[in-house]
Amino acid sequence: MGGPIPGVELVHIARETDNVDRLVAFYTEILGFKRMDTPTFGPFQVAWLEFPPSQQIHIIQRNPDSKLPESPLNAGPDSRKDPSALPRGHHLSFRVSDYDAAVKSLKEKGFDVFEKDQQGHTIKQAFFFDPDGNGIEIGSWPK
Fold it and tell me: What is the count of structural domains for the chain?
């Protein structure tokens, strides 16, 4: 194959949604992302968010004709939002500076949080869902 492509850097993660404003509010008010200048892409709504110095999430209005399999918006009737399944499922992960305060804040805001301690490690992890059903993890990883 000739080796990896040189100079690759992760720029952003994209999330599709039926409600851009609701998901933007979640990522800005709960996780602290900031709105960025966002180009106009046409007849659908897009919001670019940044967590300095360089992590980005792009929130994109869902194409109703698309049935992407990874989208929780396309989940079948037998699916359920069980945060205890997230350690082995699709999720975004964020390091937090005060794990206990972060978990307390999430619970006070009504999020169903599953906490997981790694036996033999000091790392703590908590899993929950954003308003669209995307998996989110926060943890106490060392820098």
Answer: 2
